[in-house]
Every structure is written in structure tokens, then in C-alpha cells.
Amino acid sequence: MNPNWRSFLESADGVFDGETSELLNFGDAAAELLVASRQTVLVPLTHLGLIEASGEEAKAFLHSQFTSDINHLAGGQAQHSGWCSAKGRMQASFLTWRSGDSYQLALAGDLQEATQKRLQMFVLRAKVKLTSLTDNTILLGLSGPQAGEALADAALPCPAEPMTTAQSNAVTVIRLDASRFIIAAPESAKAELWQKLTVKARPAGVPAWRWLDIQAAFPLVTLATKEEFVPQMADFEKIGGVSFHKGCYPGQEIVARTQYLGKVKRHLFRLNSQQALKAGDELHSPDNPDQACGKVMTAAPSPAGGYEALAVVQSNFSNNVHLGSREGPLLQAAAVNPA
Questions:
Q1: Which of 40, 210, 311, 337 has the fewest CB atoms in 10 Å of its CB?
Q2: pLDDT tens digits along 261-281
Q3: How far apart are the C-alpha atoms of 12 and 4, rounded to whole Å?
Q4: Beta strands 41-44 and 202-203: pairing type?
Q5: Contact of 21 with 1, CB cutoff 8 Å
């Protein structure tokens, strides 16, 4: 994380975790969660990293590596993308958009360095340059009923449709859904943007954005869940993250076979718990004594109390899911996309 950005957020009363350096809150975590559920919040997305792919062969390179159809990603559009291992397991997930002739790839910050390094191994002689933008670009999450007005206060455009983008000078606004936006801006613009956006949006920590991700059923792959899931296990194809009409990419044969043979036994579920949950937590069922029946992808405190999470769970054991062991706390699980 850019130390200047961190210092700025600390001067705005941002509280960071001493061990993980995660932005926890701006002084009142519980109140921020409540605001996120009802009103408008501004969240510095310090848990994300950003990679730029540029060069005349960047499109062809990414299309050959990712699960989505990069060839048809037009300017003004965004899409979810996955990068799989040869075994079809997701190594990373991205929000991908065009910036001129280059491509911006937002992913979990704890995967950014290793992902960029490994992607670079496959560039070979292709005319592609991979650059980390994490230290000179800030990512802000804006959510709530006054999000459009907050963008207007900052003289920023408001994309009309979900998964579309709009640019103003060096700032890009990506609309995720009806009420959520991501703003990518130069680090040098942080003070001006913060002053204008916080007129109508309350600052909130990363846990508030994770809770919003859970409500939106967005399954972000992190270090704790790297190479754990075939895309369909996380319902990734349901958010447009997988194209079944494109050419080869790493793991494509397994992903396609999984789809067409209909052998996906694990799917994305929302969990409710009175116990703390975190990404990577294993889930068990007394009905399945031999192995774990699922794993948490992302988790956050709930505005209603307790915790909520997205988890990949074996569907036929979802009525009897326990945290950590077969004797652990019983969790409530509901399918994100019921069959």
C-alpha cells in the first residue's frame, strides 16, 4: 500500500489492523456497517491491487489466459475474469476494464505480486507489458442511494448501466450494479476526491465493502482460497466471468467439461453465523464424515449482528453445515442461485 495514501487515511481517522494493515474503520465500525446497509458510504479499497496490461498484443495475451472473452471487451465496458491453473482451479479473479488501449486488472491485493510475476512467465515474446499500478493509483468503493449525487459533486461521470465504465481526465468510474461503483484515480488526486465525495458519502472500512460484496454475491478469490475452486463452484459463470464460446486458456478443458457434463456438486452459498468467519475457514457436516464439505470465500461482520459470508458448499450437505469441524457451530446456509 502506498504509504502516502495510508498516511492520508490515518489523518482522516482511518484505523488499520496492526498485523494485516487492513483498513478496519473510521472510528465506529458498527455504525459504518449500518450506513452501508441503508445509506451511502465511501470505502478505500485497500484490500485490492491493480495491474495494467499494455502493448499491442495485450488483448490477445489476456484472452488466451483468462476465462472471460477479452476479445469482445469494448471500451466503456467491464467484465469479471478468472485465471485458472492447468487443473481448472482459479488462481485469481479480476474486475477487468479497458483504459485506452491498455487493460486494468483489479484483484485481491494479497495475490497481486505473485499473480503478476506468474503471468509474466507466460508473456514470452509477446508484445505485452505488465505493470503494477497499486502504488500510484487509488481505488475507492462508492455505494448507496446518493452515490450518483456524490459522483456529480466530484465532477465525475456516472455510467448508466452495470458493468460499464466512464472516464474523466485520468479518473475511471466503473458501475458494478444499481448502487455500487469503483473509482480508479491517480494517487495525486486523493485529497480533492475525498473532500468532494465525502459530502454525501460516509467513510467506511474494508469490512463494510466486503459485506456489500456478500450481498451482491461477488466471489473474490484471495490468497486463502487460491486454487481451491473451479469457476462454476463459485457460480463465477453466473456473473459473466466465464465464456464457453472462446478458444483455449489454462484449465479450459476441465472448466468446459464441468459445465457440459453437469457435474458441479458445490456452489456458492450465503452463510450466517454468530461466530467470527474468515476466508479459508473449512466447513464440515456430520453427514459427510470423510472430508470438508465447503470453504469460506469472503466474510464480514453483519449490520444485524453476527457474521455473514460467501462460501462454496457441497449442495447436498448444505442443510447441516458446521464451522471448523463436524462438532463446530452450526451455520445457516442459503444458496445464492437456488437450483
A1: 337
A2: 777 889 999 999 999 999 999
A3: 13
A4: parallel
A5: yes
